[in-house]
Amino acid sequence: MSAAPKRDSYDVVVIGAGPAGLAAAANAAEAGLSTLLLDENAGPGGQVWRAIASTPVRERDHLGADYWAGADLVDAVHASGAEIIQRATVWSLDRHLDIGISVGGASAFVKARRVILATGALERPFPIPGWTLPGVMTAGAAQTMLKSSALVPDGRTVIAGQGPLLWLLAAQILRLGGRVDRILDTTERRNYLAALPHAFAFLTSPFFAKGLALMREVRAKVPVVSGLSELAAAGDGQLASVSYVAGGRRETILSDLLLLHQGVVPNVNLAMAAGIEHRWDDRQLCWSPVLDQNGNSSVEGIAIAGDGAGIGGAAAAVLRGRIAARAAADALAPAAAARFAPMSTIRASLAQAERGRAFLDTLFRPAPQFRIPSGDTIVCRCEEVTSQDILDAVAIGATGPNQLKAYRRAGMGPCQGRLCGLTVTELMGQARGKSPQEIGYYRIRAPVKPITLAELASIPKTEADIKAVVRG
Amino acid sequence: MTRHVDAIIVGGGIHGCSTALHLCLAGMKPVLIEKDYAGRHASGVNAGGVRQLARLIPEIPLSIRSMGIWERINELLDDDCSFESHGQVLVAENDVELEACRARVAELNALGFTHEELIDAAELRRLVPAVADTCPGGVVSRRDGAANPAQATTAFRRKAAALGATVCEGVPATNIRQRDGLWQVDVGADSYAAPVLVNAAGAWAGRIAADLGEPVPVETVAPMLMITSRVPHFIDPVVILRGRKLSFKQFANGTVLIGGGYPATPDQDRNETVLDWRSLAISARTVFELFPVMRGATIVRAWAGIEAKMRDDLPVLGPSARHKGLYHQFGFSLHGFQLGPGAGAVMAELIVNGGTQTRIGDLGIERFHPSISQS
User: Fold this and answer.
1) A97 Cβ contact partners less than 8 Å away, ≥ 6 residues apart
2) ipTM of this complex prediction, to 2 decimal places
3) Is the CB of B274 less than 8 angstroms away from the CB of A96?
4) Fewest beta carbons less than 10 Å away: which of A311, A332, B1, B69?
5) CATH architecture group of domain B2-67+149-217+311-368
């Protein structure tokens, strides 16, 4: 499954094999379209169904029914005839739908008539003092280890932050016999009131019962501290303690592992590198692509499905994947498309799956002090740029993230802003009294994931290259 | 509302910003109009080469003038622009190329230029130890170097603003017209009027010139660059090849910039470029062959800035051949960054004094319009 692509062009190329990508690839191939599914992990599933085909966790209850639901979709893709390449890194995509792919240390290009981006979500940066210390990780990274290798923490473990994934991870760690000493809940108290208008939709959504059960399960075993107004990690070269303020009281606890999480945001780097227009989403506090109701972006031929289109969760992602595939089939194979469920039916299901999302977004809107750091807290960890460094650059005339690159190299490391971009936009916006939309974002450049010079050098020559050299 | 100023400069690249600053130093109050932000395009994203080496002869006097300013850039701008002078080296990969280098240096010497120096294999190895053993020599320009292009461009903008220039960013200059001996330009809801208009609009300058009746043979290009992850320090000077398209520079932090002029496809109306990875692969192969130390490095980012290239690869610098008060400063054809400080100084002299000591006679727009005389 890790060979180079069999062809140099496809009707549909789907990037990412999480819920949206699996659904899109299965449906596109079932419609008779030549379909390539590219995924950078060892197996399909994305983050939510990570290692679905290989996890050593055998006790189904430990990961929950939502996790195992992914297996059916993986079977459907395998049966559909879609070509699947795992461990494939897509490092370039442009508006001509030329796709640069690295597989097994060698790069190749394929062309697509349609591209469906299903690159999912990333964890929102959580830039508190000490967040770059060894011993501080994201909850998502901990969950990856848990799903892939059944590894759970056994030292003094603190989980801090908010959002559904936080509770799910805590429950999974406990079920697998891991240790959680304390949960520090950063949800702002005023958010409960703000979310109230959306409560009815939430109470009647599937999120509600599941969320309540998870929280009850975790609270029975772990002390939970709510209403944090400050949070910091400390230690000399390694995490030693976590200190926080809750209800006006400061407390410090010794800790070997701090897991941070305050929600997920769309992983937009590949879409932005392709030139797709994005807007600042004030409710989810992140950049989201501008899409029509079929998921089509501002670049002709590229659609986006799943959490990369705006956070909606796995069930919504599957449906958005189906919609994007259906739209591709309508355009490229209308006769075959007519056999599928009508678009209106899928859209109705999507509306159902998205119920309760507004409540979650409002309730778990991260507090400003955990999004926008101050002083010598690191913002860009690749280049070790602090909050104060960024304010200094603003003072001498940096108006947005792209000028900050020149002044401080922020965002110029290998992660290309994945770990600092949102923080930089909001911090500069606050300093300049502008909205995030006005401040803008880093211009993302290919390679979206680094490739070696040797690999680029060994891309096969084409007829055109030889002519270019002669023209020189 | 129409605001009266001493000069209107269209374009916030290093050229427009440098001219704005030099006009301020001469006591004028210019307005600088930039549709995006200063340094958004080629001026902010080029390779940062501060190079007299291997220039076309008609622009050498301007380049030498500029070099003098670069060497005191901190005094001028209160910002060092990260300028470093470790020389620039042109590498000959074989004896035929070395002969061409020898002829070039002899030609320059005959014209009285001494900044380029022929070097043998031993001196090349001393300057660039990592270069392949088969290279027989080359040319060095020892005072050359490199600077941070976005930092330098914004430093010019900042100093110009501090000395009284009005800087308008984020709004294009539109409806450029001459009325009652004054140039008038709309900027959003505002208008500016001045006796002097400087066209320093880079890739967009050809349209302005054409709209004002002075079309020139110019195309929009986007030379590609890529940068690597950090590798151990192995090279000080900027290196360019005589025979193949490649330029190469290692920064103090260890990252390596690889350029050489293969073009991306520009879309100037979208402010976008589409990279050509198959051409970048050729650059990668050249580096792979020439600098074995680079083989394990990773490519972190590639990009291209949009700029103007003239048919004869020479800039258009000087007064209009048609209109009083109009000056052109564009078309720097992939090698304008180093010229920015000097060209701004020269432009201010042309505007304020009506002439300059720096020889720029071959760079005027009249070379494309031999029959037109100023109206």
Assistant:
1) A13, A111, A112, A113, A114, A115, A301, A302
2) 0.90
3) yes
4) B1
5) 3-Layer(bba) Sandwich (3.50)
